[in-house]
Design goal:
It is found in: Cytoplasm. Belongs to the imidazoleglycerol-phosphate dehydratase family. Pfam families: IGPD. Pathway: Amino-acid biosynthesis; L-histidine biosynthesis; L-histidine from 5-phospho-alpha-D-ribose 1-diphosphate: step 6/9. It catalyses: D-erythro-1-(imidazol-4-yl)glycerol 3-phosphate = 3-(imidazol-4-yl)-2-oxopropyl phosphate + H2O. The strands form three sheets. The chain has a four-stranded mixed β-sheet with strand order 1-2-4-3, covered by helices on one side. A four-stranded mixed β-sheet has the order 5-6-10-7, covered by helices on one side. It has a two-stranded antiparallel sheet with strand order 8-9. By secondary structure, it is α+β, with helices and mostly antiparallel strands. The protein starts with a strand and ends in a 15-residue tail after the last helix. The protein is globular. The protein has a single domain, classed as Imidazole glycerol phosphate dehydratase, domain 1 (Ribosomal Protein S5, domain 2, 2-Layer Sandwich), CATH 3.30.230. The protein has four helices and ten strands. Helix 1 runs parallel beside helix 4 and helix 2 packs parallel to helix 3.
Length: 191
Amino acid sequence: MRTAEVSRKTSETDIRIELNMDGTGVSDISTGIGFFDHMLTAFSKHASFDLTVKATGDLVVDDHHLIEDTGIVLGQTIAKALADKSGIARFGEARIPMDEALATVALDLGGRSYLVLDARFMSARVGEFSTQMVGHFFESVVHNAKINMHASVYGDNDHHKIEALFKAFAYALRRAVFFEGKGIKSTKGTL
């Protein structure tokens, strides 16, 4: 089974994540930021990954450190669970509508991290979650998991747009980690 657990403790945050990529979408999420919990739960459910996230941090300052560090640890956990990436599809994509919003994600698990994100939000926050942290979260994930990801979203409701992005990321990643053969899908012989 493709499982991993990673912990990271700093003077600002304390994060522990457990991931099972061959799960059924069971999650146990606790970050202290209700909307972020909702997004990570949606990611787990729609990727069919079992996911435990226990995160505490200096929310008295703001949500930046906690969301950023959760992204770092989630990226490290994804990379650890995938190991050498043997047999996976490598590429994944998804288009997810949510009412008036539509999110598109295409990604490559080829070992080079890059994020292109086209997302504009009208609100500063959704609940206690800063909308400017959407890009920073995904940047932290893809950098630490070595994912190349292109994502875009349009719509009128920021809640819908962010949720569609998280769900599109879930489906694209699920498709990329799907076993479809043996060996490494690269002419280089390694990812």
